Amino acid sequence: MSIRGTRITLRALEADDLERLHVWSNDEALWAMLGGWHFPTSREAQREWLGRLKSDTLNQRFGIETSEHGLIGTANLVDIDWKNRTAEHGMMIGFEHLRGQGYGREVIATVMRYAFDELGLERLSTTIIEYNQASLATYTGKAPWVIEGTQRQWYFRKGQRWDRHLLGVTAADYRAWMAARDGDS
Q: Which PANTHER family does the UniProt record give (predicted)?
């Protein structure tokens, strides 16, 4: 099964993706833009991580694929809470030259459609480090996500402290956004 957007497809990660995932997992500049802490990752650790994904119903990770470029990044729905119908969402476009071309916006829309229309979730959340202005603009300017709070000085990066923005979107936000988009057509 795959989840189709207009230019992108979200699909299961496969063993054939390991080399590209390994390169991205060790890209210091890429990880500086993402949350969490990251250590250098071996090929074996990457293989073990991929092997654990197949049976994890609470943490779904997808490859972002285009017909032109193949695998360009990853997206996820993690910490899925089936009782409260919520999940955390994240994504990354691994190739720097493909960022800023609308793929991220399409991934967000495709993930929301899948989460809200297919899985029946009611809310998604994400976090963004304050200096990642491109991601912040994509989620809040081109998608219906709202900054719901800021955790001051959450991250230590580049020798200083940075805030973490907490963002959220509800199924109702998504449906209103889709209706407005359909009305503009």
A: GNAT-FAMILY ACETYLTRANSFERASE, SPERMIDINE N(1)-ACETYLTRANSFERASE
Query: Cα separation of 29 and 20, whole Å?
Result: 15
pTM: 0.90
Instruction: List the chain domain ranges.
Output: 3-184
Closest by CA to 9, choosing from 75, 78, 56, 80, is 75
Q: Are strands 86-93 and 123-129 parallel, antiparallel or unpaired?
A: parallel
Residue spans of beta strands (DSSP E) within the chain: 3-4, 9-12, 60-66, 70-81, 86-93, 123-129, 146-157, 160-170
Buried b (16+ CB within 10 A) or exposed e, 135-170: bbebbbeebbbeeeeeeeebbeeeeeebebbbbbbb
Q: Are 105 and 142 in contact (CB under 8 A)?
A: yes
Which residue stretches of the chain have pLDDT < 50?
none
CATH number of 3-184: 3.40.630.30
